[in-house]
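Re: the multi-chain job from yesterday

Posting the exact lines I submitted so nobody has to dig through the queue logs.
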Amino acid sequence: MAVNLQPLPDLLPVAGIRIGTTAADIRRQNRRDLVVIECAAGTRAAAVFTQNRFCAAPVLVARDHLALAGPRALVINTGFANAGTGEPGRQDALAICDELARQLGVDTTEILPFSTGVIGERLPVERITSGLAGCIAALDERGWTEAAAGIMTTDTQPKAATVREMIGGVPVTVTGIAKGAGMICPNMATMLAFIATDAPVGQAALDALVRSAARVSFNRITVDGDTSTNDSCVLLATGRAGGETIGQPEGQAYQALLQMVTRLFTTLAQAIIRDAEGATKFITVDVCGGHTEEECLEVAHTIAHSPLVKTAFFASDPNWGRILAAVGRARIGQLDVASVTMHINGVCIVRGGARAPDYSEEQGKVAMSQQEIALKVDLGLGAASVRVWTSDLSHEYVRINAEYRS
Amino acid sequence: MAVNLQPLPDLLPVAGIRIGTTAADIRRQNRRDLVVIECAAGTRAAAVFTQNRFCAAPVLVARDHLALAGPRALVINTGFANAGTGEPGRQDALAICDELARQLGVDTTEILPFSTGVIGERLPVERITSGLAGCIAALDERGWTEAAAGIMTTDTQPKAATVREMIGGVPVTVTGIAKGAGMICPNMATMLAFIATDAPVGQAALDALVRSAARVSFNRITVDGDTSTNDSCVLLATGRAGGETIGQPEGQAYQALLQMVTRLFTTLAQAIIRDAEGATKFITVDVCGGHTEEECLEVAHTIAHSPLVKTAFFASDPNWGRILAAVGRARIGQLDVASVTMHINGVCIVRGGARAPDYSEEQGKVAMSQQEIALKVDLGLGAASVRVWTSDLSHEYVRINAEYRS
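And the result, structure tokens for all chains:
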């Protein structure tokens, strides 16, 4: 029941990247659940990870390895998150890296592990290491589409995006995949996203790129306010496009690549919300008129996390009082209620902190019955603004999350 | 589908308090929706109100009137909250006070107005003022039970409590009613609660009493994290029990009354959670081992508001990883994950930040399948602790809140 989520486009290969996917029977039989992304020598990587203190074992290992070496391969499993598993969980992640390193003839520190699925249970390490040969045999630069399916959990559709543009006189490609549908309120990253480009990018510039792009894309979506233990977003740069190395953030090439990457990140982030658990609506929350971006974000999140607001969206009920109540309880320094304005899909509902004089319930019903909702709240305090994307709260969300482990 | 909510006890009258309830057809036909609580001359009142910046018009008026005079009557309507209605809404509340004051022969400032129901729509003032005569005709010191029903909105059962004990050689009575089932995350008060005692209490002591008791009762419950615009909790003291005026917070009489009032507040607060929208479980969240009470409260609220935790409770699924993930994302200063311990109904599930070695899924299932759940999280950082009560997130919650206005 994804909301206006387009079928996958043809995904352009990225020179230097090959991907293999297999069914390793990790948690369920006969579904693709193990992915290896191989990177050519010299590939640089930058990543952002969850800020949840209970971050998963693979996040700890991937962070360590990224600090030591450029990656030669990423290994991703679904089924189990390998979170809340303590030191034994870290050893499991390392054992998988060891085995893949052995088979590829590289160093263990050149492998980055990622997991997603149920929290708190150990990985079936042997089933995973047994599956690696199948992934390696399947390695292909056109492997992106299969991998997009191979990293899914409660997702109903695979998510991927691709773009090619000229930068500095050479064609540059960016292609990426992402997964995630619930436990979505990324903080410095999303569930799992793997994006590669053949652009030649210096390490510092790549670090800046992934942070800048994630800040306005993956870090601006929320399904349920629950920041996952495994959120990871990795940007790989193989350099195979040739041309001059992109290193100066103020340079034209960097800005062009930042725009490309940000657009692609945003497409993937929005795809996660369009496929959010039980979603029937895609909701863009714009909060402007705050003193700072943090203040706007606090208000936007309070609205986007309110169960009462989310059920009103599900019911197409223009119960705007619930949105106003959420604004009123947001933890910001000050608020002059008389300066608050609210629009839904262009209909002015609240002006001066109360119902707009010319607003009619009929207008509200029409606005709320759309699948695509644009909610705009102006706090009337300052010049900062922020945009967040979220979904509604439906019977299906409860069903999925009450039945997830059964 | 309230969870182990007992039928109302016989409610002891409080000398000096008479209550009248009527059906004024405010939003629906033929249901009690208007209540007048008359107080004898000399009655003192103390109250705590919502901290939501969009507080309702009656809250503004009640706060103003409380500062000017002791109350001679409270008037409470359900159906419409008179919130988000701006200055016209304030005039509506004042018009109702004016009319009741005229009929009782007292001053407008001696009337305290309260409303609950849909936010954002104007009150039908004429239907309410027309109903006042019916309330006055029905005034009776045994009117508590009817009033408990008369202030309900989505509540499935009326909520009231009563207690009598000897204080300072005289029998003292405390009786109270409350309403609330959704939009519950009180901050300095709950939805609506009206409690009266015949104890003779000085004004400063009464103010201290209501704050102290609300802090550990109404301010420690949450259904959905949505702080209402209308939360009000009023404690009336008629002084008719006789005996010495209770004025010294350190005195024995004050402490005895504080215990009585706190017990009664807690019973009413728990009744709200037992009758929470769609609740199938009554969940006590104890967080200890924090540096400060605020830190513990932040963790307890993050757990209690997590849709993933709440749906796991609904499903009786010991998916403790979701609870751990909520602890990990709580906005507290520091957390050593290796020092975190978690118990559910006495079963140790997490020790040292990971699954307890002797924990079995079977034990978890038995613990989670109870209607009464005691969740204990020890952060292992300090000596502070806090207790919060909450409910689960069920299909019924979504149904109620998606259909509330239809």
